Structures are given as C-alpha cells and as structure tokens.
Amino acid sequence: MTDHLDRIKRMGNLFALLGVGIFVLGLVDSTSGAGLTAQFTMLGGIIIAIGGTILWCLSEQNKLLYLQQQEISRKLDALKVKTSEPPAQF
Predict the structure, then answer these.
(1) How many CA atoms lie within 13 A of 50 on its CB side?
(2) Is residue 76 part of a domain?
(3) How far apart, in whole angstroms, are the C-alpha atoms of residue 60 and residue 66?
(4) Residue 85 above 70 pLDDT?
(5) 8 pLDDT exceeds 90?
(6) Which of 53, 55, 51 is nearest to 63 (CA)?
C-alpha cells in the first residue's frame, strides 16, 4: 500500500514540476509579445502546479493515516492475544 502511495506522491511532484515549467514557458512567451495566449499558458501552469501539490499532500496524508492504522491494528492484535490466554491458576 505504501508503494502505491509513494508512486502517487512522485506523480504529484512531476505534475508540480510540469506546471512550473509551463508557467515559465508562458512567462517567456509574454516577454516576446504574445499577450493573451501567454497569460492562459501561465494560468494553466499555475493550475497544474497547484493540482500536483494537492496530489502530493493528499498522498502523504493518506500514507500517514495508513501507517497509523497499521500500528493500531498491531496493538489491538496484541491485546487480543493477552485477553485470550486463560487466567493463571494459583
């Protein structure tokens, strides 16, 4: 499960980098005189970068929740083992 979340996290990083690259491309276009097209390119880059960042954050949060769930499951299993043992005879 954590491998799957790591892949999603890497994909979020790639989207964020792609968005920054598209934004820079629009910024370069705006200096050459391409007005509205460059603005839409920059806006698209910002949206993609924000989406990638959100994807990265959500995958990291899900990974932490998954690890906490595993730890709680282990503790509950340990309690079940302790309570299933018969009481000591004196």
Answers:
(1) 6
(2) yes
(3) 10
(4) no
(5) no
(6) 55
- Residue 84, CB-side half-sphere exposure with 13 Å CA sphere: 6
What is the number of alpha carbons within 13 Å of residue 52 lying toward its C-beta? 20
- Let me know how many helices (H) and strands (E) the chain has, helices first: 2, 0
The verdict on residue 87 lying in a domain is: no
Inside any domain, residue 86: no
What does the pLDDT look like over 58-81, one tens digit per residue?
Answer: 988 998 899 999 999 998 888 876
Q: How many domains does the chain have?
A: 1
CA angle 72-12-59, nearest 5°?
10
Q: At what angle do helices 35-84 and 2-31 cross, to 10 degrees?
A: 170
pLDDT of residue 39 exceeding 70, the answer is yes
Single-letter amino acid code for the residue at 64: L
Give the predicted TM-score (pTM) of the model.
0.69
